[in-house]
Amino acid sequence: MRIVDLRSDTVTKPTPRMLEAMTRAEVGDDGLGEDPTVNRLEEMAAERLGKEAGLFCASGTMANLIAVMTHTRPGDGVICDENAHIHKLTMGGTSAIAGVLLYTLKADPLGRLSLQEIEDTINLDPRYPRSRLLVVENTNNLAGGTVLSPEETSALAALVRRYGLMFHLDGARIFNSAIAQGIEPKRLTKDCDTVMFCLSKGLGCPVGSVLAGPKNFIKEARRFRKMLGGVMRQTGVVAACGIVALEEMVDRLGEDHQKARRLAEGLGRIRPGIVHLETVQTNIVCLKFSGPNMSCRELVGKLAKKGVLAIHLQGNQGRMVTHKDVTLEDIDHALGVIEGVLKGKR
Ligand SMILES: Cc1ncc(COP(=O)(O)O)c(C=O)c1O
To answer: pTM for the full model?
Structure first.
């Protein structure tokens, strides 16, 4: 059976160039700062994002948690979208491990937070938890991969800076955002204090994320990475893939965006209203589906039996993500399968 795996861009497999780079990687003990390949990746990543230093982490979840731990003290308040990855998808790590309170706000349908609501949430009164950090995603995963522009990022930064808060950008897919907007990623990161991006998603690496920010911040962040057991020793073996990704895998992300468009438009033709097309700005297609005889969960289950893999999020919400390991032909095939299932033909 033909399988079209649209569950996430995390399902991507390393490229032949990555596998080759792994076998050739010069390595050392990263816990001692002696892995030349990791050091090179951290420098490259920091440079691409206009930051002083980088820290290679096992995952985006770990890099975000380290950022929160480094920016805050237990008891501090962190402001984020109610659908933020750090809120919804990290097993409560920010409260269980960092000990902070998340103040969650409802974003608009394109995943943007209101400046006014952020301002109203900031609390510096000594009787209350101290607002310390704003965390924002670019692209916004659960809003459907929507992008934040440089101007929107600057406005958020200017607001929180006025109150002395720090600004961490969860840029798991920051390169998708930059490619979709036709701009250098630096323009999206110059106003945040710190940024994290994932190598293991659309960029195709098997493992890894990089946290970037000021030198002193990264020095401190290293201590938290150690605390979390995130020192992985001869990590150059996987960091080598990250170098290939930054050199070769960024410019092609536009192809994934075209595939998502084709998928979203096709879905809209099959079932008008199932996708809010305005949210399809990068490689994510969020669906809202509830039929008289089929729930969204059942739809996802039926599609999986026919080889089209999607994710059921919750209730009537599902998600499909395009990436380098699906082709335009796969998308057309998936649309045929979806149409068959929805129209009861298959
Ligand atoms: C916006 C966002 N942040 C962070 C992460 C976490 O990355 P990881 O899966 O590498 O832990 C994800 C993963 O999907 C994400 O979408």
So the answer is: 0.97
